[in-house]
Amino acid sequence: MRNELNVLTTDSLIEDVHFRRNWTSARAIGHKALAVNLSDLAAMGAAPRAVLLSLALPADLELAEFDELVDGFVTLADAAPVPLVGGNLTRSPGPLVVDVTAMGTARPRRLLSRGGGRPGDELYLTGSIGAAAAGLGILTAGADRTRLDDAAAACVSRYEQPDARLDCGIQVARNRAASACVDLSDGLADAARQLARASRTGVVIDATAVPIHPGALAWATGLGQDAMQFALSGGEDYELLFSVRRRQRRAFLATTARCRDVTLTRVGRLTAEPGTWLDRAGRLEPLGDGFTHF
Amino acid sequence: MRNELNVLTTDSLIEDVHFRRNWTSARAIGHKALAVNLSDLAAMGAAPRAVLLSLALPADLELAEFDELVDGFVTLADAAPVPLVGGNLTRSPGPLVVDVTAMGTARPRRLLSRGGGRPGDELYLTGSIGAAAAGLGILTAGADRTRLDDAAAACVSRYEQPDARLDCGIQVARNRAASACVDLSDGLADAARQLARASRTGVVIDATAVPIHPGALAWATGLGQDAMQFALSGGEDYELLFSVRRRQRRAFLATTARCRDVTLTRVGRLTAEPGTWLDRAGRLEPLGDGFTHF
């Protein structure tokens, strides 16, 4: 890899912190553990080159569950594609721990960071959000998995087996079409705050523009929640939030139009005035807090 | 890094599997978690370039312990030297989990593997062994740390804060002075078996040549153990075992003579006949099993 920078990222999923084994299949746990790391690479615009899987296995984990977990991981790795180059197995006296490290590469000055935004930049979001939080709500409410309607099934699938926006992050980075990027591991409000803080700007999110997933809209009321709250504070959507200079807008939209299966929505802007705000038809409210795990 | 290969390795330390918090200081846990990964790089002859630290923290871990753990890690990283480039913090509902990933580089065809040995190759071991197992035995027996004699203190220190033989592994690899290498995470018997299996050879260890650490010799009887058993089956010494072609012997010894603070001992040979054997003054016995954690 001549003239390329290596980036490394690590993220772990821990039983009873990030998932529960009686709600979530081992296959989904394996998938998600890799997806959250690929999402970190996507937010940097780095192409994945190698991944490592480190597992701490409780004594009551059955061999079939172990096989499924590894299969969920490897299936996503094959699809990315990125080789699983090593790892570590040990036993755990407590929870199942799935620790993943991913290495990626990007050319110098093509890496995306959170800190490149400036006042006046527009904010664009991939896909739609809120579904993962709705899916978690549906599982927490004890829904019967075999009897979910399509909207509920889509939310649960989004929660358990998120996609990383690798192609989109890499293309935008290669074309230097955005000024900064962050992924939505802990909700839009948290992502916007992180991008603004790193860029030393304020931020305003336009409430009417936020693309809420139809499954989240369908299920929010039944779960006793506001769909906008799922979208702003619900975690684990793993979409990407980009900031884009106004003069980059055309190049950015042309680049993202070539990304597979991803729509982009303008959801707000960076401001010179500090603070993180939600614009509800001209009235500014403070943006709420991000997502907390169990 | 033009013309260099990246290698990645990951290894974790888990409370009540690899250490106990009431025996081992947080500083030592941080040190050891990095040292075992640096030892993996040393066995490949790769120079460390970056490390990641991923921690799952139980609620009862005090802030001072967390600080000490990170300090133990960073102090060794500074000494290596290798930069800590990132990591992850999460809470654990169970044990303290310290997961480390290390990236190293080596030039192509300079990497050491376990599989390059051939029948007739001589086996060389760095340093002396058995001290870590004796140190664990001393801690398990409930010895008063403030009243250890010098031999016991040396054993406990070796168990808690092992050194990785980085300089030696890297120099041997750069000079292509060995045919294969493995580190002693689980004892000499296990290391010899792994090197022989990967090289598709048999192996004979010469019992009279094994360099047993003086602390292990001094403490074995008091702990009701045979010192040779500590040396063969006691884990966590993190020395390196090299196989060396006879015609490489002079180059190997010249290279290792320049390694800092490391003595090399010829401890055996690879054979065409399969099997893993201990040669006790001409009588061959099967080599015992490796080390198992708690």
* Fraction in helix of chain A: 25-40%
Instruction: Characterize the main sheet of chain A.
Output: 7 strands, mixed
Number of strands of chain A: 11
SS class of chain A: alpha+beta
How are the strands of the biggest sheet of chain A laid out side by side? 6-8-5-9-7-10-11
Look at the structure and give the mean pLDDT of chain A: 93
What pair of chains forms the biggest interface? A-B, 32 and 32 residues
Distance between the termini of chain A: 41 Å
* Helix segment tally of chain A: 9
Q: What are the secondary-structure elements of chain A, in order, as H or E? A: EHEHEEEHHHEHEHHEHEEE
Query: Could you list the spans of chain A in which at least 5 consecutive residues all have pLDDT below 50?
Result: none
Global outline of chain A: globular
Radius of gyration of chain A: 19 Å
Question: Can I get a quick summary?
Answer:
With about 290 residues, chain A is of the alpha+beta class. Chain A is about 35% helix and about 25% strand.
Provide the fold topology:
Two copies of one chain form a homodimer.
Chain A: E1 5-14, H1 26-44, E2 47-58, H2 63-79, E3 84-92, E4 97-106, E5 122-126, H3 131-140, H4 150-160, H5 166-174, E6 180-183, H6 188-199, E7 202-206, H7 214-220, H8 227-233, E8 240-244, H9 249-257, E9 264-271, E10 276-280, E11 283-286
Parallel strand pairs in A: 2-3, 7-10
Antiparallel strand pairs in A: 1-4, 2-4, 5-8, 5-9, 6-8, 7-9, 10-11
